[in-house]
Write a structure and sequence with these properties.
Blueprint: H1 3-19, H2 21-36, H3 44-58, H4 64-97, H5 102-134, H6 138-160, H7 166-191, H8 203-237, H9 240-256, H10 258-277, H11 279-306, H12 308-316, H13 318-350, H14 354-406, H15 411-431, H16 437-471
């Protein structure tokens, strides 16, 4: 998952120069759409992962085939419905909602229509990946995810050699995802032979899939709205150039999240299986995962926070640095809070309490959108970043409290998390006053060294527990 970030570091400046800032801003929205349109699976992909993981944890696999194919039938119907919806709203979105220049509107409409056609493939892919996650076949997932992620940036670069048009770039993105689906499916067939023999829906599995998936859909819809709506609002209230200034540091920082995101994919089926078998094991997994994630992400986000102006100037020049560095600093803190919050959201989903997560997001949505609208209008993209960080902080407080309510056995780990949150805010606030590059370097070295020292013991324990398993 780190490979796309490396490619993006080189591809983004090239794309901005070759496409222009307005067209690149629209490409950034297209990238977002590729990920956001997976919401049309109504949470069924994650629901399928949980049901399969629970059956594997109990060693009760008699009805796996019917569970899997019921989910696939439902997902196919939802994918087709999603395609129709997006096709219907594409033209009003490009012409009326987003501040797209007239000369780019035709490209934008054609590109979004192509995205609409890809929705069935996108959500079917999430279901197949969910099966591989339930079986904990993460090396198979990575074997496809690496080239898929690389092509997210490399596809537009290849397209740019022939034309700056977004239609070609979008076509390559969609073709790459279609090929990825084929490879994922072949890998899933090898671990779950039930996929070789298509079946229809089984009525008794529809309700469990939709009940869990329905609540998860609320979060799947609201969560990305709170994460991605900022770009739509900037494009509407400001300019597509402002979208580029905001999205560039956002994309880099989001790509840095490859470590927690990959770990979350591992943790979800592990948490689900542990919950039905041994809550003590669940508590141990949760505490260890939270501890390791914080110790890895804290120094990384702090270094990016400290050196944001210098890194952006070196990468994209002085103009981008002046416009984007304050945004990058706010977002660095926000992504640290997002990492902490998502650890708890994974627990809530794994133990079958997605409704708590959904209700929390419903309560947060309107206040966040109001703050986002006001701050963006008053303070530009810096205001957008501030609103985004405040929303991330709300999640980082609310979700641990809900986790402790849903699984009292996790109270100890949750308590430590809640104590950590104000410390992080104060610590990053103090870093703002450090201006000397030498002082920044000393602080960064000290923090990295301290966190690395604290990581040695838990990582050594993980390695030692792995050795007997390998020898057996």
């Amino acid at each position: 998952m780190a490979a796309p970030m490396v490619v993006g570091l080189f591809a983004i400046p090239y794309l901005i120069d070759g496409m222009g800032k307005d067209r690149f801003g629209l490409l950034a929205i297209i990238w977002m759409g590729v990920g956001y349109f997976s919401l049309f699976d109504m949470g069924l992909g994650r629901s399928l992962t949980r049901l399969v993981a629970e059956r594997l944890g109990r060693n009760q696999c008699d009805d796996l085939a019917s569970v899997i194919w019921t989910a696939f039938c439902l997902i196919l119907c939802l994918g087709l419905a999603g395609m129709v919806v997006v096709l219907a709203v594409t033209e009003p979105l490009i012409v009326n909602l987003l501040n797209v220049p007239a000369h780019l509107q035709a490209e934008g409409i054609a590109s979004f229509r192509l995205l609409a056609a890809s929705i069935p493939i996108v959500i079917a892919t999430s279901a197949v990946v969910g099966i591989l996650e339930a079986y904990q076949c993460f090396s198979r997932i990575a074997a496809v995810r690496v080239p898929l992620g690389v092509m997210t940036f490399l596809g537009p670069v290849i397209s740019l050699q022939f034309s700056p048009s977004l239609v070609g770039a979008t076509s390559l993105l969609i073709a790459t995802r279609a090929v990825a689906f084929v490879f994922y499916y072949v890998s899933a067939v090898r671990v779950s032979p039930h996929l070789k023999h298509p079946m229809g829906m089984t009525a008794k599995h529809v309700r469990p899939l939709l009940t869990f998936g329905g609540w998860l859909t609320v979060s799947t819809v609201i969560g990305p709205v709170m994460i991605y709506f900022d770009r739509f609002l900037i494009g509407s209230l400001l300019t597509l150039t402002a979208v580029a200034y905001y999205t560039t540091p956002y994309e880099v920082l989001s790509r840095v999240q490859v470590l927690p995101q990959s770990l979350f994919g591992v943790l979800f089926p592990a948490f689900a299986a542990a919950y039905v078998a041994n809550t003590f094991k669940l508590a141990r997994l949760f505490e260890r995962a939270t501890y390791i994630l914080v110790l890895i992400m804290l120094p990384l986000m702090a270094v990016l926070f400290l050196f944001a102006p210098e890194l952006l100037q070196l990468w994209l020049g002085n103009e981008f640095s002046q416009a984007s560095a304050p945004v990058a600093r706010w977002l660095a803190l926000g992504w640290l809070y997002v990492t902490i919050a998502r650890t708890h959201s994974i627990v809530l989903q794994a133990v079958g309490r997605p409704e708590l997560l959904a209700k929390a997001h419903m309560i947060e949505l309107l206040p966040y959108l109001a703050a986002l609208w006001w701050l963006t209008g008053e303070y530009g993209i810096i205001g957008t970043a501030v609103a985004w960080v405040v929303r991330a902080m709300m999640d980082a407080v609310t979700l641990p409290v809900l986790t402790r309510y849903a699984v009292p056995e996790l109270s100890k780990g949750v308590g430590r998390t809640l104590c950590l949150l104000p410390v992080l805010a104060c610590g990053f606030g103090a870093l703002v006053w450090v201006e000397s590059v030498a002082a920044k370097g000393l602080l960064a070295a000290a923090l990295v060294g301290a966190c690395a020292g604290l990581l040695i013991r838990p990582l050594r324990q993980l390695w030692l527990t792995r050795v007997p398993a390998q020898s057996v």
